[in-house]
Every structure is written in C-alpha cells, then in structure tokens.
Fold this sequence. Notes:
Elements: H1 2-10, E1 18-19, E2 22-23, H2 24-43, H3 47-53, H4 58-86, H5 90-104, H6 113-140, H7 145-174, H8 178-191, H9 220-235, H10 239-247, H11 252-284, H12 286-305, H13 309-337, H14 343-371, H15 376-392
Antiparallel strand pairs: 1-2
Amino acid sequence: MPNESKVQINEKKPYSETMFGIPVILLLLGLVSLLNDFSSEMILPILPFFIASLGGTAAIVGLIGGFSDALASFLKLASGYLSDKQHRKKPFIVFGYGLTSFTKMFYIFANSWPFIFFLRSFDRVGKGIREAPRDALISVVSRTHGKMFGIHRVMDTMGAILGTIATMIVIYFFGMNYQIIFVIAAVIAFISLIPLWFVKEEKEADANHLLKVDFNVLGPKLLFVLFVFGLFNLGNFTYMLFIMKAQLQFGLAEGILIVLSMYLLYNISMALFSYPVGEIYDKIGKYAIIIGFALFAITCIGFVYATSLFWLIILFIVYGLFNAFIDGNARAFISDLSKEEIRGTALGTYHFVSGIVALPSSFIAGLLWDSISPNAPFVFGFIIAIVSVLLLMFVKVEN
C-alpha cells in the first residue's frame, strides 16, 4: 500500500506538464486552433464576396453569418452541460474539430448561396460541439484565466493571420480563384486534427453526478452578466458586413487585396493584444470587458464616417483590439463567476445566450443595410454597445 501511494504521488499529471512555463495541454489545444483557424480564415475573408457572386444580398450575408453563429452557440450549451455530466471534455473537442474539417471539403462544390448557407451552418455545428468543453478544459489547467485564454487567443489568431496571407498569395498569383482556396483550406483543416492525438485528459471527480440544466444554479449575478452579454451581441453583427463596408470604397477587382490587407491588420491587432489584455483582465476584471464594449462602439461610429483608406486601416486595428478584449476575457469572466463543477455549463450558457441573438443581430443589420443605408447597422451597433457599457457598470464583483 505505501508503495502504491508513492507511485501515485510521483506520477506526473497531464495538467501539470509545462513547456516554457505554459501547460502542455494548452499549447496542444492552441496548435489545433491555430491550424483550424488557418483553414477557416482562408475562406472567411472572401466568403461575403463568394456569396455575392452567387446572388446573395447583404441581408443574405447577414442571415448566413447570424444563423451559423446562432446554431453553434445553441450547441455550446448542450455540449458544455454534457461534458460536465460525463466528466470528459476531449471526446467533444475531437468530434467538433473533426466535423468542421470534414465540412470544409464540400466548399469546393458550392454553386449557390443556399448551399453555402448549409455548409456554413454545418461547419459551425462542429464549433458548437467543441468550444465550451475546450474552454472548460483550458480553465482547469491554471487559475490565471485571463492569461491562459489570452495565450490560446494569440495562437488561434496567428492561424487567422497565416490563413489570410495564404488567401492573398493565391489571389495575387491566380486571381480570385475560389476553388484553389477551398482545396488548400480543406487539407489544412485535416492536418489540424493531428495534435489532438497527444492531448491527455485527467479523470474528473464525480462531484456533480446530479447536475442538470438549471439556470438558477448560475446565480442572479451571473445571469445578469449573461443578459448584458446577450444584449451586447445583439449589436455585434457579423464581421462580413465590416468587410463589405470597407469594400464599398474600392472596386472589387482592384480593391480585394486592399480589403484583405485591412482584414489581416485586424487579425494581427487581435493577436498582438490578446495576451496582454488577458493579463489586464487578471488585474482589473470586469473593466476590461467594459473597455472592449467601448472599443466596439468607437469602431462602429468610426465606420459611419470613415471615407479614407487611412481611417479604415485604423478602424480595423481597433476592431481587432476590441475582439482581443472581449473574446478570451468574456470566457475568463464567466469562468471566474462560476463554480468549477458547473463551469462547462456556465460557459455553454454564455455561448447559448450569445447565440440566441446572433441570428437576429446579423439579419437585422443586413436588413438595415439593404433598406436604409450601409451606415445604419453601424449606428445600431454603436447604440447597443453604449447601453451595454452602462449596464455592466452596475455589476459588483468581489476581488
């Protein structure tokens, strides 16, 4: 018996293994995200143009972006709950990434916007299945949630930068050849699955065997914060309308590389700031979220008045900074406000609430674009962001 105890004490746990001071499991999950985003971001910057070439309007672009994001968020609640209930995260992560990779093969055969609607939705099903369990797994490897999510966001965004550059290279040498872009993206998507083989998950204690989906267990403070995030996301419409607004300044033929360059700056901005703003969150908590909301308001009102390339470049950098402040820090904030045994459910609920408004958000923005003017959705986003800032100010969080 003493020998057995000694063996267990000396056994190195997967969550305790580090490299360069960073948990190995976080580096592996970050590498998967990097490669998967490399694949996705080869497609996403040119997707609104591809939809338009197939007859899609701004409202259709908003519908596709909103519905796919909403579908993903709905599934995050279910996967977060089930991963908590089964005390396992990795199977959900593997299946989710695998489904996304499989879907990317079929972009090559897309010949109508309804087909893109189907593919984009199915792609996001994979995201919905994997994200809450993955975030919950990241949250248990360290108590510095802002820092850990910041590192993951940096690796994820580095993939986005590489993907955008790869698409720009293809366009430069081959013109707007969607098929070449889709083929390369599909190959990289399957390569992204390899690091998952090395992810080892520790067995969780059966502390929550009676866990059920009950929003009351989250508590009034967390529920109010989820409401505020839901309200904010009502105005946080799809990135595709930002790209389309910038493209209005140029003709498609001569301006596509300029627009993609600005989108690249957005991703570089997000990558550069994700880690430091994660550390900022660990120091100032909710005020980092408030800063993020305010940056989105500035971005939206800026897009209303910007008419020069210089200001569009500045605004895409600010847009990236906004995402750096919100993406990882929102998940860190939810993690800090929830108990560990329900953290997957709490994160899944956060994504679920965001998903409820994702569809109307982007569709309404698209309708405002088509029926009033391309500036209307940005005014709408500005107003919602300001209200969200004011509401979050009332939340009291203990240090």
